[in-house]
Each structure stands twice: as structure tokens, then as C-alpha cells.
Amino acid sequence: MTTDRDIITAMQEGLPVCPEPYAAIAEQLNIDEQELHTRIEQMLESGTIRRVGLVPNHYRIGYRYNAMTVWALDDQKVDTIGELLGKQPSVSHCYKRPTQLPSWPFNLFAMVHGRSLNEVNEKIEALRLLIGDNCRQSEVLFSEKILKKTGLRLKNRNPKNA
Amino acid sequence: MQELNKKTAELTSQEKLVINSLQGGFPVCARPFAKVASQIGMDEQSLIDIITNLKDRNIISRFGPLFDIQKIGGNFCLCAISTPPDAWEKTADQLNEMPEVAHNYLRTHEYNLWFVLAIETAGQLTETVAKIEQVTGYPVLALPKEKEYFVGLNFEVQ
User: Fold this and answer.
1) Chain B contact present for A130, CB below 8 A
2) Exposed site from A71, A79, A132, B48, fewest CB < 10 Å?
3) Domain ranges in chain B?
4) Does CATH number 3.30.70.920 belong to domain A65-142?
């Protein structure tokens, strides 16, 4: 039985860019191509695959500024505000994370990208207005350097032991 | 080391069309490139050539399915370390040598090093964090995600 993990491992480097990319992956997995289509559709439905497509290197296409905005919210408000920020087109990722007092009071994280510092700052101000006085404290952390960026890899392990 | 102020790539109008059209919803069928090509007024081979070329120029960083690894038991944890402003390089090198460290960014904050640990089980987190604290000599802020409100963004090129 081919597991989801086997399918993920086979497509970890992405899809081959050739006329029949799924046939190439199916062959590698030793399954029928139609079976692979069905499995991918199922994984899309369950959310194991978020989407199939291309991911641009956003720095290379002009989105050179990214800010991690962090907000300290009351526990009972974090879900409402998190859902609200997540719906803003300017926000690419929005998560709740634990605080670590006293050094880290922030429980909501939202990433904002832009082509200029000005654009990013305007987007952050718009978020600030939405959040209003629900937030006790906030910070903006711009990225200065990418020090390491590797794909997230699963080890290829024998499905019988999985 | 990859600098953030790296030059923005020059793109043709066809390349922009491909980047804007293919960020989500790539079809799952026998000839997906032929299908997409006909939708955007191109032929299959031209589309394949453009994507291959964009990959070679590092303008596309990934092509294919995007997985939510946590759904099959993988684990990620965002972590941060605060070093003195002029002393981050040694710590960054120590972190980058560890296979568990998938991403590592320098950010404008007292907590200046922000990195993502990719581990196979939740149990490994404590162990890995302890190892990092021992190697670097700094306490680690471990901030595993508790809830996801949104992930995803289309980057439009104009």
C-alpha cells in the first residue's frame, strides 16, 4: 500500500517540468497514474496538500520587504483578531503562538510582504487600525538576512515501519 | 548567505503571465501543462520552457504540490535567540550546521535570530532545543504554532 508519506516523499522536490509530470511520479511510486490523480485529489481535500502550483521566489519578483508583526492580545480575543487578520489580503501567514513571560508577551503573529518599506508600513498601519485597542503591545520585526533556507524534508523511510 | 536586497529579476510579459496564473490550481490530469497553456494562450512546449527557465534563474523557488507536513505527523517549531547585535554570526553558523534547522533569518529585534526547526515528532522538540541551548550558550524561545488562521498568498507581478 502506497502511503501519503510515500507520495509526499516522491514529490518533495516538486513536480518534474515535462509534458506528463504525474506519469513520471506514478512510475517512480510504481502505481497507476489514475490512482495517483485520485490520491492527490484526496490529499487536496483533506488539506495534506494545500495547493498545487508554482511558488515564486518573492525577493526575485520584487517583494523584497517582509515583516513579522507580533501582537499581545487577551486570550479570549486572539481567535477573533486572528481570523480577521488572516482575511486581510496583505497577510500571508497568521498564527497563534504561546507567550513566554516576561520576555515574550506576544501571542499573535502575522506576516506582511511588500515591494517597498513604505508599502509594508502602510499595510501594518491598516492592521493596527483593525485591531484597535484590543492590543496591549506590538512589535514589527523586519527580516535583514536569510541565513538558511532549505526545503522541509522528510526522511525516506520504509512504509512497513511507518 | 542570501542578501535580501538581491536584484529584482527582469521579466517578460509572458513570464509575468505564467507567474500570475500558476500560483494555485495547477491541474491534476495527464497533460496539465497542455491544459494550462491552452487557457493562457500558449502552447505546451513554450510553457514548459518558460517554467524551466524561471526555475533555472531562481525566480520560481518551487513547482508542484505544497504540503501541510503536520497533517502526516511532521512538526515545525519557530524559535528565536537573542544575541548581542554584533555577535550573531557565530551563533547563526552553529544553527545552520544543524540539519534540524530548516530556515534561519536575521531580524530587526532584540531577539535577532529566528529559525524554524523541522522535526519528525513532537517529543524531539525538547531534546533539540536543549541541544541548541548547550551548543550556542543562549536560551531558546520555542514558539510552536497553536492555531493557524491563514496560510497562503499570491504574489502578483506587474
Assistant:
1) no
2) A132
3) 13-56, 69-143
4) yes
- What is the DSSP pairing of strand B113-119 with strand B101-107? antiparallel
The closest CB to that of A53, out of B25, B146, B149, belongs to B25
With CA atoms as reference, report the closest residue to B132 among B78, B76, B87, B91: B91
Q: Would you tell me how many other CB atoms lie within 10 Å of the CB of residue B77?
A: 21
Domain A4-55 in CATH 1.10.10? The answer is yes
State pTM to two decimals: 0.83
Alpha helices in chain A (DSSP H): 4-10, 21-29, 33-46, 75-86, 117-131
Q: What is the ipTM of this complex?
A: 0.82
Q: How confident is the model at residue B8 (pLDDT cuts 50, 70, 90)?
A: confident
pLDDT per residue over B112-131, tens digit each?
A: 999 999 887 778 899 999 99
Task: Choose the closest CB to B28 out of A22, A145, A152.
Answer: A22
Torsion angle in degrees (nearest 10) through CA of B27, A25, B120, A79: 0
- A101 has a pLDDT exceeding 60: yes
For B155, residues 6+ apart whose C-beta sits below 8 A from its C-beta are: A56, A58, A61, A63, A113, B19, B23
pLDDT tens digits, one per residue of A17-73: 999 999 999 999 999 999 999 999 999 999 999 999 999 988 889 888 999 999 999
Q: How far is CA A52 from the centre of its chain?
A: 13
* CATH code 3.30.70.920 for B69-143: yes
Domain boundaries in chain A? 4-55, 65-142
